[in-house]
Design goal:
single chain; 162 residues; mainly alpha; 6 helices; elongated; Permease; membrane; DUF6803; transmembrane helix; transmembrane
Amino acid sequence: MMEMTHYMQLLADNQPWNLLIFMAIPVILAETIAVSELYILFTRDLKGRVRAINKIAGITVGFYFLIVFFYLLFKAVIPITLAGEWRTIIDVIAVGFYLLGVVPLFGISLLELGLIPNLKKEESKLQLHATFVAIFLIVAHIAMIFGMLSPALLGGHSSMPM
């Protein structure tokens, strides 16, 4: 029997709602930012429709994921930690890196709202924006990779079969 991480269990439970809320919405918004970011970086079109979509997606995803972060922190991470129910370091890495996505995503929102000071040049904003996108892609993929691993690889266990 295969075992699953809390990350995968969250996505598998309450179908299709958890998958939509915790994966589809943030990923669709983040991918919209990533693809539009490439267009903006290549064309330098800082005033067009693609830039407007990029900005709206950037503001939305940061605040959306901030809500997800606090929800999961109080409804999952703290209770799992207090109960000692982590399913090996694989589980901790999967959940931890998923939640770490709040840093670059909320950073994008703050940048879009002009709340990150000392960025007067548009070029500096573009560089930081692209850096936040890259950081999010890295942490999200680490979360997904570890989330799909079985905690049983390191002796962990779960009451939920995969």
